[in-house]
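Here is one chain, start to finish.
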Amino acid sequence: MTTSDVFGTPPAHDPAVVDGLLETAVSRLRAINALCSDEVERAVRAVPRHAFAPEFPLEEIYDHKTVLRTRYADDGTATSSVSAMWVQTLMLERARLEPGMRVLEVGGGGYNAALIAEVVGPNGAVTSLDIDPVVTDRARGFLAETGYADRVEAVVGDAEHGHPAGAPFDRIIVTVAATDLPPAWTEQLVDGGRIVLPLGVRGHQRIYALTGCGGELLVGETGNHAGFVPMQGAGAPAPHRVPVTGTVELVTDADPVPASETLPGVFALPVHRVPSGVHIGGMEPFSTLQMWMTGLSGFGLLTGTGEDFVHRPMLSGATPAVWDGATLAYLLCPKVPDADEAYEFVACGHGPRSEEAAAALAEHVRAWGRDHRGGPGPRFLAHPDLPDADGVIRTRHTRLLALWDRTEHDHGLDWEADTRG
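Its structure:
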């Protein structure tokens, strides 16, 4: 079965219209620093993005911020998509691809694999891996129709196991949201190779670029926010979800996990509030604060909206919180009275240590404000045998340690700003 059998005959687009939309997209990607190199730009110009998403209008296909969701689960959640152009070019830039490289793409679809093939050239090799046979078949059809079938091998497999038949790889580019680093990835990566992926660290998904430093050690840096569909199969995320109220849950993969009957009673206790004194503008990014919080013991996220708390949350449905076994503390972000577009981080606590827990949380915010506000975020060490210590985050396969440098410069995308919930 060909893609034409599924989508019908592809529409005959006016080349002048396509060229105009592509030119605008490239200009915008350059302007926000998501596209920097001539090599990646040549790939974007060479691969017809519309040929990999024939069911969408051209204006959406070539809008640099639009995600094209192509497959859904029974509950309506997206399971496969063609990522927004800005995130695809950004990840390719961070991968530092070179001609002749062997690349594993985790999460298929066709278009991104074709971009990689253009950059690594005819002497390179690209394997595109996806767990869903329907997605793989779709990708194979589009790759064949656009002339990339001989340059990209599209295979079905579980991301947890990588693709040993094609290893070793110079680069692994992951286009589904991971919450861990499976051993297969480091085992199949050459020394000095690079893994670029959207990694969810305690609920906050960002793009990481990690370099292999021998054995199982990876060293890397964080980047921009991401919103990829979650990984499926053995590496699918499985956080604990503990009820707090009818509309609020604590979502955590940290210890200790509260008993299901404990949190409602604690949350019903009087709240103790501690203002941090740290103010933030309405469009000022605070993503490094989110990362700064994840190193706290017992970290999790509270779902719920502004109606569920005494003040508005930092982000609707993702309020950072800490549970120590008896006391719950969390961070809200109310508007500063009589100020235009200014907000203050306020720590709230419930339970026997509410005052102490809220004060500690507020001081943690102040430390971020002094040392890391406006910075690029932490670098990370990843290794399965890192010793238990403050700030070490345990995942199923590895342990992560954030390394924070004091800096005053933000290296994120120029247009990026967090949306207040």
